[in-house]
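Table S7 (text form). Paired inputs.
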Amino acid sequence: MPMITEIEDLRRIYKRRVPKMFFDYTESGSWTEQTFRENSSDFDKIYLRQRVAIDMDGRKTATKMIGQEVSMPVALAPVGLTGMQHFDGEIKAARAAEKFGVPYSLSTMSICSIEDVAANTSKPFWMQVYTLKDDDFMQRLFDRAKDAKCSAAIITVDLQLLGQRHKDVKNGLSAPPKLTPASVANMMTKVQWGMGMLSTKRRFFGNIVGHAKGVKDPSSLGSWTAQAFDQSLNWDRIRQFRKMWDGPLIIKGILDPRDALEALNVGADAIIVSNHGGRQLDGALSSIRALEPILDAVGDKIEVHLDSGIRSGQDVLKAMAMGAKGTYIGRAYVYGLGAKGQQGVTDALNVIHKELDASMGLCGRTDINSVDRDILMVPKGFSGDWAE
């Protein structure tokens, strides 16, 4: 097994081991993929300020996200279909996160159910929900999360309408996946992946099949997903969801300061600056560029986190120094999961932690809670100087 020293090492193994359909699902964005690319490349435009002859001993990356203790300011983002990247993928990722001391976020569109993950972990995880039309399903989803002792809910607000991801369309990647001769032939070459999938009963959308009205089996899932998402969503509707969940609430998918203020007004505890990993509106700003104007708008009235584009501990450090109070990794941990299962997720977290810890020290700081813009060199106009 190759030595793992960076996230790219895991991505290379992941690409070899997982069927193309599911690799492409992870490693793609919508339309031209401009936003998908710039989510990562825009971090490269921010430079770190190295300091020397400063005591770097006793470094600390531990902090809090929405009042919860975390070993570093990194949560595992909600990612759909994780259980198709590796058998029982959500369970394995949640276990790795628990042992590392960071939050795990379970997607509504997961393969393993809320109950599956709760039964196989000992600490609370976070539950992500979409803004669906069906009030009965939504209320029961929140109730199931409460019964599983989830310590926060994440409402994703940027998926009223699905952005076209060309690779997914061509691969037949949908809910449920539409297998093509090419995808079946490719799956047959991924022997280790296939043996794992055959060893588990968890191969369908565990939070939906048997729980949503009229969805008794995978064959009835397609028509439900086509009608479930609410294109008429507004902030009053989000207020209704807030009443369904009385615990800590995070709203994910904010890119505009006006929407950040709306999220504050509906009683959210935190917002996630995110463009869905570049998978929704192509041509939208990268999350790191969108961060500062949102922070300026909300001040310290609400906790601001960042998602989309994090591939290293240096990315985490830059986001925190720009003012975020937490970050999320999606693709980075999925690479590890597909490559090596639970151990691969742990490897991804170890890589990011080591990079964060060392880079913070070389910038002359010993506590993640003390980093600020002083450790950065940010280009003028980085967050936008746009014509009216």
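Next pair, protein 2 of 2.
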Amino acid sequence: MSSILIKHVNIVDSLEGVRKNKNVLIEGGRIKAIFGNSETLPQADEVLDLAGKYLMPGLIDMHVHMTAEAGIDKSGMSGGLWRLCTPSPLKAMHFLHNARKAMMSGFTTLRNCGHTTYYTPEDVAVRDAIRKELVEGPNIVACAGYITMTAGHGDLSTNKNIRRLPEYNIGDRCFDGVWGCVEGVREKVRHGADFIKVMASGGMGSSGDEPEWPNYTVEELSAIVREAHALDKKTAAHTHSTEASRRCIEAGIDTIEHGCGLNDEMCARMAENGQFLIPTMRVVNQLLESNDREEREKAEKMAKIHDGALYAAMRNGVKIGYGTDTINALKHGENGLEILSLQQYGMNSKEIFDAITFVSAQALGREEKIGLVREGMNADLIAVDVDPLEQIEHLAYGDNIKIVIVNGKLMKNTQ
């Protein structure tokens, strides 16, 4: 593999802050060496002089839905209908297009949280194509589709009047009861999942349920966690209600997604357990302006309890990762705008920087590989003109990201 030498750059990460005027050698997709200017510079296939710029870990979005319509001549269909009518190979192309837009905005790792085709999940296919260097793109963390119960949020994302035929790519297969949930985990792992995503409450993008409805019992959620952990997979749960979040915390879910309704007592327990919150603040505010009346009314209810959950997590020391819930309400490639929302809710530049890099890497269980700038770690890096620990809002806009390197490959250079 080719090598890259980055010269005269300021290195920034969560543990060491800013290291001024360093040089970084990348070989074999990893950071081989970091050294000062007094040392002899090695030869490399490509040399980037980034004098005055700031080199930092690539950004991580822990909650995206990349299987969404992209390109020109849009069909005009709703997201759910489009996914129902579009063949999986074509959906994979849309997925890759969306993932690359996020990558060019500085996001080198994307955790896909559902909306994939049953049996032939697009996130697994695109992940594997990137790993095999058939196409270029960011690192994809795939769930191979979510686990949902009958009449749960994932199930009702398909119109209730349509007969579910998952074998023919119509709707999702539902998993009910303890042993059904165990089977669901095993099936997702067989299909190539990196982690297990479960719908633990109703939602805003489904019709016929309410977001505050809990969607699985503690026993079912505990079975999902036990089986996933036995297979070395982490778990993530969509939850929009206090009761659903309580059940997920008790069951030991690794990351609580959205987390509406969390309170101080629950957050204190999350912090003690080492569980993470992925708050996705911007999407709720976006859905308040939805053209769909039911969706808008649900968002109005959730907005009242979404803000308090983040504040409770901050007060009680919960580890907060970074997620956007990008799909239709938010545009792919604008993943960084969540930064501005987190600022509005009182998180400072250092806290947001940590969330979007090292804390999210910890939540993925990949902190030994990504999230810091260290010798031996994956060369997933970006460079910008200003110190993000002072001006984190600079990272909100993709045009401000001058350099993007993924697995040691230069994907963007607009310096």
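DSSP finds eleven helices and 16 strands in the chain.
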